[in-house]
Design a protein that fits this description.
The protein is α/β, with parallel strands linked by helices. Helix content is 44%, strand content 18%. It folds into 2 domains: 184 residues, Rossmann fold, CATH 3.40.50.1970; 113 residues, Up-down Bundle (Dehydroquinate synthase-like, alpha domain). The protein binds nicotinamide-adenine-dinucleotide and zinc ion.
Length: 364
């Protein structure tokens, strides 16, 4: 099997541009990239037990301190207690301004380590090595970091752009199928909002994708990274264009919130959220019906989503009202206007939202 060539995308951030390097086995290039960017006289690796058990040995050659800092993994550890643990470990390791932190893990590790790096000594450089599909196509790029508060997800956070991102498709081999599939919904999102070719590609190569064939997966990661990079480069702080990334997220976040983050993987909730957004768009006359049908069949093709029949549309509507995406009382709802095109709606009504979520299977 031939290995797809390594791809490189540059993200421009207020703090300066940073590269995202994508491909099978690009972890091998990490040490050289850190040297080339003159990053970190000292390199400290932070990961989770689970990820490190799988992939730790691959980091032997990057010239980092021999012992990584390992924290618990999982959404329920994405909080300030774990941040304090990380601070303790950084103090103990005598991390100073010449230290670069290398975060190896999924979105939880990326958000936790990114936030700790943003605040320790008022900011140390961070390098992301995302190990879930979701983290590779989404969370490792863009500089949003943060942790949960008991009363809400991601309530505490900071913008802290990474200095380098290395997305190695070969680490996805060990990812549980459900986690992998959850990441694919975000790739579908990029297809709907920006690059319809992605929808064709997923449909046509779905078996190779699920086999984690690098030739099938790397192009998806590269295209997704390129799109996310373009969007956040143009609008780092989410005052306009970046909002298109919220397609499917108004309803998706609400579904996660009402089920207290236990029933869905993030991407699965976004799967439903995209379908609801498409139904809403069709009902309004802004979304072509064939696009709804195309995405519906693609999502069904990936496998079953967790059931939603026990979730009430009323509760989901209430949760939408509490969302961070409401700016000065206005909900900015992203709808699809064509394959690869979006329109922002600021006058979506309660009735439209409730109807749309009932269309995807919620009860009244
Ligand atoms: N900062 C952002 O812009 C942004 C964007 C989207 C999501 N997020 C955040 O990302 C988090 C979700 O991230 P996630 O979906 O990556 O979940 P996750 O980090 O919880 O990882 C999922 C599971 O996969 C395991 N895992 C990770 N890599 C593995 C590998 N290569 N092989 C085997 N197992 C592996 C983890 O140990 C964990 O059990 C959420 O907290 C969400 O808020 C942040
Ligand atoms: Zn998302």
């Amino acid at each position: 099997m031939s290995v797809p060539p390594l791809a490189r995308v540059t993200v421009s951030a207020a703090a300066g541009p940073y590269p995202v390097i994508i491909g099978a086995d690009v972890i091998e290039a990490l040490g050289g990239e850190l040297d080339a960017l003159k990053l970190g006289a000292r390199r400290l690796l932070v990961s989770s037990h689970r990820v490190w058990d799988f992939h730790g040995p691959r980091f032997r050659k990057i010239g980092a301190d021999r012992t990584p800092i390992l924290v618990e993994d999982g959404e329920r550890y994405k909080n300030l207690n774990t941040v304090v643990r990380l601070f303790d470990a950084l103090v103990k390791a005598k991390a100073d301004r010449s230290t670069v932190i290398v975060a190896v893990g999924g979105g939880v590790i990326g958000d936790l380590v990114g936030f700790s790096a943003a605040t320790y000594l008022r900011g140390l450089p961070v390098v992301h090595v995302p190990t879930t599909l979701l983290a590779q196509v989404d969370s490792a790029i863009g500089g949003k970091t943060g942790v949960n508060h008991p009363l809400g997800k991601n309530l505490i956070g900071a913008f802290h752009a990474p200095s380098l991102v290395v997305a190695d498709s070969s680490v996805l081999q060990t990812l549980p199928r459900r986690e992998f599939r959850a990441g694919l919904y975000e790739v579908i999102k990029y297809g709907v909002i920006r690059e319809p070719d992605l929808l064709d590609r997923i449909r046509d190569t779905v078996n190779a994708i699920f086999d984690r064939d690098g030739n099938a997966v790397s192009p998806l990661v590269t295209a997704s990274c390129r799109i996310k990079a373009e969007v956040v480069s143009a609008d780092e702080r989410e005052s306009g264009l970046r909002r298109i990334l919220n397609f499917g997220h108004t309803v998706g976040h609400a579904l996660e919130a009402v089920t207290t983050y236990k029933q869905f993987r993030h991407g699965e909730a976004i799967g439903y959220g995209m379908l609801a957004a498409l139904h809403l768009g069709v009902a309004r006359g802004v979304t072509p019906k064939p696009l709804l049908e195309e995405v519906e069949s693609l999502i069904t093709h990936l496998g079953p989503l967790p059931p939603v029949a026990d979730i009430s549309a009323k509760e989901v509507y209430a949760a939408i009202g509490r969302d961070k995406k409401i700016v000065s009382g206005t909900l900015h709802f992203i709808a699809a206007s064509d394959r690869g095109k979006t329109v922002e709606l600021t006058d979506v009504t309660e009735k439209e939202l409730k109807t749309a979520v009932r269309k995807v299977g919620l009860r009244a």
